[in-house]
Amino acid sequence: MKKIKGLYEKYKEIINYVIFGGLAAVVNFGSYFVFARLFHIDEVISSGLSWFCAVLFAYITNKIWVFESKTETKKAFLKEMIMFFAARVISGILCDVGTFALMVKVLGINDIIAKIVTQIMVVIMNYVFSKWIIFKKKKENTNAE
User: Fold this and answer.
1) Which of 17, 78, 85, 101 makes a 20 to 30 Å CA pair with 119?
2) Distance from C-alpha of 94 to C-alpha of 136, rounded to nearest angstrom
3) Would you say the pTM of this structure is higher than 0.90?
4) Sign of CA pseudo-dihedral 125, 127, 130, 136
C-alpha cells in the first residue's frame, strides 16, 4: 500500500488529470446524449453545448485538484480563467466541434464513434495547454542570497 501511495504522489498530477479528464469526457458525452438523443437537438449544436458543459467542469477540477492553482490576485485569477477558456475554445473549435462536424456531416461517420474519437483528441490537447501554458508553475529562485 505504501508503494501505491508513493507512486500516486509521484504521478499525482497526471493521474488526477486522467481521472478528471475522463470525467470531463463523461460530462461531455452524457450531456451530448441528453441534447442530441433526448431533446433531439442537431448533432453539431448538441456537440457545442456538451463541450461548454465539459469546459465548466474541467476548469473547476483542473484548478482545484489537478494543478492545484492558487491565484493570489483577482487579476491573476481572471488571466488564468481567460487563458483556460481560450485554450478550450481552440481545442473545442478544432476538435470537439470542427472535427466532429467533419466526421459526421462530411465523412458520414457514426456520431457516437466520432464523439469518442474527438474526446481522445481533446483530452490530449487540453493537457498540453494546461500543463505548459495555463497552470504553468513559476520556477522558484533557488539561489541563496
Assistant:
1) 78
2) 23
3) no
4) negative
